[in-house]
Design a protein that fits this description.
The chain is of the alpha/beta class. The chain contains 11 helices and 17 strands. Strands 3, 4, 5, 8, 9, 16 and 17 form a 7-stranded mixed beta sheet that branches. The protein has a 6-stranded parallel beta sheet with strand order 12-11-10-13-14-15, covered by helices on one side. A two-stranded antiparallel ribbon has the order 1-2. A hairpin with an 8-residue loop joins strand 1 and strand 2. The N terminus is likely disordered. The chain binds NADP nicotinamide-adenine-dinucleotide phosphate and zinc ion. The site of NADP nicotinamide-adenine-dinucleotide phosphate (NAP) has 28 residues, from helix 2 and helix 5.
């Protein structure tokens, strides 16, 4: 590619919250000294893409090129790049710049410094004026410190969803010390949930899936679940009362958090990672009755994302995916909203 064709690339964008995604062009910046240019091969479709493209959380920036589960190949590097070379297999997740050194743990809590975080899309560069455009596109230019290395044994298509779904489950599971002897429940067997089951199982915990129905039970068991229950069955809430050390709730819609808190042991924790578009009420008795904790967790830091990728490489863990051409993105969104995906749509970006 010559310089001109490298900087203007094809993408898909939402022009407004109520319009379907459609072809669009993006001008990527000329690489700076510490930039890596990535030819994007695959991009996962996260439910957050849908929330944001439809402005479900408010404050969306249009036009929007969604996509923060990017896997591709390095096609050029700036003069000061030391970590990557042309041909490397790499990924980009939910943020492409930040305030690396400002957190109390330095780069280990960078994702919580939202004031300085530059999101991969639906945000602005540090100048607060230049919009960022995400992975539903042919290429992306990213500072080397925000590029991840994909293990050699993980194909790029199934690795792409690790960049958001994988780290979003790995981080709370690691933080709350998932391991042998711990009973963990994952609510929702979608894109995030199916990564959570595999990772918690690989960490050695006893894993239960809490799904709306038993329709995906065979898949859940194959992915590593020891138990699988339907939240539509009232017996689930009596037989599993007080059962879990940790529950990770990946559900994208408002559900009965109070009932779910009742499934925790004394001192147990329910971590919210799903982000419903409406506030969810919680009954105080559900918390005080067992000194229980309701917590939240947002993706993970760059060092932790690399740790997660290496963990997945070691354990042979990746996403189960349905690959789609770019032109089927709007149909894919409708199917995600109906929980009709096993378990992540991944866009083949050669189809743009
Ligand atoms: P997803 O693939 O749609 O999975 C969500 C799962 O939740 C569904 O598969 C379904 O599982 C269950 N579910 C959906 N609607 C439900 C309802 N009305 N009642 C009960 N269960 C329902 O979505 P995802 O990509 O995994 O993302 C899930 C949520 O996490 C989204 O809100 C997303 O924005 C958020 N997210 C947060 C972070 C973070 O850093 N905290 C990062 C990425 C995404 P079953 O069919 O098994 O019931
Ligand atoms: Zn995401």
């Amino acid at each position: 590619m010559d310089t001109a064709s490298r900087s203007r690339i094809k993408a898909y964008a939402a022009q407004a919250a109520d319009t379907p995604l459609a072809p669009f062009q993006v001008d990527r910046r000329e690489p700076r000294a510490d930039d890596v240019v990535i030819e994007s091969k695959f991009c996962g479709v996260c439910h957050s893409d849908i929330h944001q493209a439809r402005d479900g959380w408010g404050g969306s920036v249009f036009p929007m090129v969604p996509g923060h589960e990017i896997a591709g190949i390095v096609s050029a590097v700036g003069s000061a790049v030391t970590k990557f070379k042309i041909g490397d297999r790499v990924g980009v997740g939910c943020f492409v710049d930040g305030g690396a050194s400002i957190g109390k743990c330095g780069r280990d809590d960078e994702q919580y410094h939202l004031d300085t975080l530059v999101l991969t899309y639906n945000g602005y560069e540090h100048d607060k004026k230049t919009p960022t455009f995400g992975g539903y596109s042919q290429a992306i230019t990213v500072k080397q410190d925000y590029v991840l290395r994909i293990p050699d044994n993980l194909p790029l298509d199934v690795a792409a969803p690790l960049l958001c779904a994988g780290i979003t489950l790995y981080s709370p599971l690691a933080h709350w010390k998932t391991g042998p002897g711990k009973k963990v429940a994952i609510i929702g067997l979608g894109g995030l949930g199916h990564m959570g089951v595999q990772i918690a199982h690989a960490m050695g915990a006893h894993v239960t899936v809490l799904s709306q129905s038993l329709a995906k039970q065979a898949d859940g068991t194959r992915l590593g679940a020891d138990d699988y229950r339907a939240t539509s069955d009232p017996a689930t809430f009596t037989s599993l009362a007080g059962a879990f050390d940790l529950i990770v709730n990946t559900v994208s819609a408002p559900i009965d958090w109070s009932a779910l808190l009742g499934l925790l042991k004394i001192d147990g924790t329910m971590v919210q990672v799903g982000v419903p578009e409406e506030a969810v009420p919680v009954n105080a008795f559900a918390l005080i009755g067992g000194r229980r904790r309701l917590a939240g967790s947002l993706i993970g830091s760059i060092p932790e994302t690399q740790e997660m990728l290496d963990f997945c490489g070691t354990h042979g863990i990746a996403a189960e995916i349905e690959v789609i051409p770019m032109s089927r993105i709007n149909e894919a969104y409708e199917r995600v909203l109906k929980s009709d995906v096993r378990f992540r749509f991944v866009i083949d970006l050669s189809s743009i």
